[in-house]
Amino acid sequence: WIYEKMVVFTGKKEALDQLGWHVQLAFIGNCTEVAKGMSTRSLPPTDQYTLAFENIQVLRGILEDTTHFHYMQTGGGAMIMSKDGKTSTRAPDPKKPQTDKLYLALLTDTTYIRHLIEIQEEDVEEIKQIAAAASPPT
């Protein structure tokens, strides 16, 4: 995986960068439901979600008939230290998954989304072509 950050990424460039040959399960879909679950007590916390999708277009791998997937990401509350180490400020809260958005989802298995990238409808065909051309070796 290129990034190990647990955040929602945005844009076609990010989608194409993430969609390397190593990704074996991937789909594009419209998010219809975001249910926030438990969060860890760490700082920043890790937030857990269950996301529902419709109009799923599988790019790689085989998915069951499921439309619900688990996802987790870094929550808000992180602190950034100044260069002098004497003061800190709160980092901006990361972008959260939202309904009525189109996403490229990269999965670790058939139920767990590892990376979520918000994309635009006009980028779908190019992303599908790149995914087909750079499929993992069998």
Radius of gyration: 16 Å
Mean pLDDT metric: 88
> What fraction of residues sit in β-strands?
35-45%
Query: What is the CATH class?
Result: Mainly Beta
Would you identify the regions where 5 or more consecutive residues have pLDDT less than 50?
Answer: none
Kindly report the CATH topology: OB fold (Dihydrolipoamide Acetyltransferase, E2P)
State the helix count: 2
Shape: globular
What is the count of structural domains?
Answer: 1
By helix and strand content, what is the structural category?
A: mainly beta
Major sheet size, sense and barrel closure: 5 strands, mixed, barrel
Architecture in CATH? Answer: Beta Barrel
Termini separation: 18 Å
Count of DSSP E strands?
Answer: 8
> What order do the SSEs take from the amino end to the carboxyl end, as H and E?
EHEEEEEEEH
Strand order of the largest sheet: 2-3-4-8-7
Please estimate the helix content.
Answer: 10-25%
Blueprint of the fold:
Blueprint (H helix, E strand, L loop, with lengths): L7 E3 L1 H7 L6 E15 L6 E15 L7 E7 L4 E3 L6 E3 L11 E6 L4 E8 L4 H10 L5
Parallel strand pairs: 1-8, 4-8
Antiparallel strand pairs: 2-3, 2-7, 3-4, 5-6, 7-8
